[in-house]
Structures are given as structure tokens and as C-alpha cells.
Amino acid sequence: MTILDVAIIAIYLLFISWRGLREAQSHQNTDDFFLAGRSLSWPLIGLSLFATNISITSIIGLASSGYKTGISVFNYEWVGSVMLVIFAIFIAPFYLKYRLTTMPEYLERRYDHRSRLFFSVIAITVNIFIDIAGALYASSLFLSGIFPSLDLHILVFIMALITGLYTVLGGLRAVIVTDSIQAVLLTAGSIIIAFVVYQKTGWQEIHASIDANLLSLIRPVDDTLIPWPTLIISLPILAFYFMCTNQHMVQRILGARSVDDGRKGAIFAAFLKLPLLFMLILPGTAARLIYPELENTNLVYPFLMYDFLPAGILGIVLTGFIAALMSSIDSALTAASSIATMDIYRKFRPQSSQRHLINMGKVFIMVAVFIASLWAPFIEQFPTLWEYLQALLSYLSPPVVTCFIFGLFWRKATSQAAFTSLWMGSLVGLMLLVNNHFWDILPTIHYLYSATIIFLFSSSILVISSYLDTSKTESTLPEVDKKEIFAQPLSLPWYKGYPVFAWIVCICTTIIVLLFW
Hints:
Elements: H1 3-23, H2 30-35, H3 42-53, H4 56-69, H5 74-97, H6 103-110, H7 113-146, H8 152-201, H9 203-209, H10 234-245, H11 247-254, H12 259-273, H13 276-286, H14 300-308, H15 313-348, H16 354-375, H17 385-396, H18 398-409, H19 415-439, H20 447-468, H21 482-486, H22 498-515
């Protein structure tokens, strides 16, 4: 690192803090702080979703998995793109018409307060221990190259402090603006790294020297990362949770100024995810030719950056990836804060003023930063960062997905059945987690297969309990005209409508999957 590199990073961090200060006086109510006043346009939504989704944990995790197990990890991304399109067409319009502030709020209005509270606890747990802590840990791998003498805990604390500061000051509006800048920096940095790797190895050399199985998306049933049967149910379950129910993703859509903007923003983000195969995953796989004996695969991307980028360029690229780190942390912070404030705290203090709720939201942001900072260093104990992220999500998310899917598409689902499904499904998930990673009482079940088992169990409980339950669930959600929901604005020509955007994403996805089958 040269003085120029450090100066570029410092200037960016100062700019981010200034953006937070600039937005600090613009919050009149909770919609302003948590949803940017519901005024976001689709390009901002798409860029922010992309920057949030492709966090620093994904950058390190995707490249690391690309090095270790090949390009099959891209299955998470293309399935996620398809799920974003489904979300944009069939689900996002209902969320926007219901004028939701948080995802747990939907469960209360569809079922009752018990489901809302239960999901709130799960969502905050996911945000703190997966999203925020994972991002803080990943950041330490990058920053250790700049400040090798600093302890991991200190590096984690520094990034948590800076990101927490501008998120507390600026709320979602500051987060969205900085995310859009970060998405551009992230893309530029990834392209530079990919270009360097391809120039160093050569496309023909990659195909000739690397095992063909590592360059295939469809893997055997006993594959350690993504067995092909999990593409049918398991990956869509995780994608549904992450894209359709996860507060720190959906929050951007909820802040849209119109249904059309929400739809197009989600589809735009789906399109931006597709080049990640060439920007992050394939460079990680190709790095096997550069570092054939790499012990810690989580370090492959930092190694590529520090070894091959010249002064100045390294500073710009590092700024992009620090930006990605901030994007993932700030998004999870605003999500955890909004749920803790609006779904839990307000339940016990219903008379709280808008200003008081905003202040409590800021308190919860700092609490979340503190807890995640304490946990982040312990992630070193897990085999890889990517396995840590996906495994925990596989055990926690299926019961929630069950309640949302049946709540959205099956009117007979009852409140008692939903709550029973949530707690029993979560109990099964906890039992599988303990068995697979701690006690080994039963044969170990791959975490993706575990996700399918938990989902099928939760679904069975919900359906059976709904038929046995004689009480009637009174939904407080307003009736929505489905013809109005699926119609595009009359003022737009057909080629600017969301169906065209959706078809483009689906066609591009199909071509990529077939090419790397």
C-alpha cells in the first residue's frame, strides 16, 4: 500500500460520513428514516439491491468457493436472479399496496402478533450473526493486508464504527445514495481484477488445465457444496427468504415511489447479478493456476488484489470493496433496527412519538453493531465463510418461507397453524443444526438437504393444522385488485414495461446456464 492508495480510501470514508451528516436533518417520521420517504426510483433501487446482495462476504465467499469447488456456487446467483423476477411480478406489488414498513408486519396483518414477534427474533438473529458479523469478518481479511500489524478485533471495530455512524445519522436515504455509488465502484473493481486474472492465465489455459467438473454448474448428488437435486427445492427456498422476506433486501422495494419502480428495481438487480460468474467466480477458479497450493481459500481474492494491482489502482479497487463492505453492513443495520423498533419496541410502547421511535432505531443500530463486532472474530472457527453463511440460513429460514408462501397464495392458512409451523419448524432446524455440526447422533445431512426437510416438515404442519383448526383467521390486509396489480402503466410503451425487462433477464439466465451446464 502506498500513500496514494491510503489517501483514496480515506477520502472515500470521509465522503460517506459527510453524506450521513447531510441526511441527518431530513427525518420527519419513521417512513423517512426507515424507507427514505417512499420516494426511491428504480435505478437507485436496483443499484442498491445489487450492492447489498453482493456484499463483501459474497465477494470473498464466491471467489473462495470458485477456487475450492469450481463455478457451481454460481447456482446461488442465477436462482436468486430468477427469484427476484418472480418477486417483482407476483409479490412486490402486494407489499407496496399494503404499505408495509417491515416484513414481520406482514405476518401480523396476515396471521397474528405471535408470528410477527417470532419472525422478528429470527430476522434480527440473521441480520446480526449472518449479515453484519459475516461482513465484518470478511472486511478484516481485506484490511489485514493494509494494516497487517493490527489485531482482527481492532479492524472489525473500526469498520463497524464508521458504518454505524453514517447509518445512524442518515437512515435509509443515506444508505441508498451511498449504495448506488458503491455498486459502481464494486463493479469497476471486480472487472479490473477479472481482467488481470484472465490476462495472467488465458481463457484457453483455464479450459485446458482446470478439471472440467470444476467448470460445470450441475454437480453430482454427493457434491459437498451444491448437489444437483438441491437446485429444485433447497436453493429456491433460500432465494425466496433472501429476496422476498429478508428485511435488508425488501426494504429497498418498500421505499419505492411506485409499484412500477419497485418492480423494475428488483428486475434490474436480477440482471446485474448475472455477470458475477465472470467477475468473481471464474477468476477465483482461474486463480488455481496462480496459487496452486493456497491453504486458506478465503484469502484468494485479497491475494489477487495485493499481488497484481499497481499503486493507485489498488486504492481505487480497495475503495470499491470497502464500499461493498459498508453496503452490506448498513443494509443489515437499517433492517435490524427497523424490525427491532417497529415490530418489537413499538409493541411495548405503542404511544411512542415518531421522534422517539427514530431515536430508538438509532440506539438499536449501535447495539447491533456492538453484538456483531463481538461475534465476528469467532467465524474463523468455521471451515469457510460461504459455508458458514449458507448453513445457518438453511437451518433458520425454511419455517419463515413456509408461512410467507402459504400466507400469500393460500387463503385457508390460519394464524394458529402459522405459529405452530414456525416454532415446530424452527425446533427441527435447531435439532438438525446440532446433529450435523456438534453431536452427530444421526448420520450427517447436507445443510441444503436439511433446508428441504425443514421446509417440507413446516409446510405439512401448516397445512394439516389449518384443516384441523376450526377458527377463522381474520386478515387485516386490504383487498387488492389483481388486474390493477399486473397491469403496467398506460403511459409507458410496451418495450419499457416490466414484462420486457423480466424476459431479458430470464433469457440471459437460460443462456448462461446452458453454456456452463
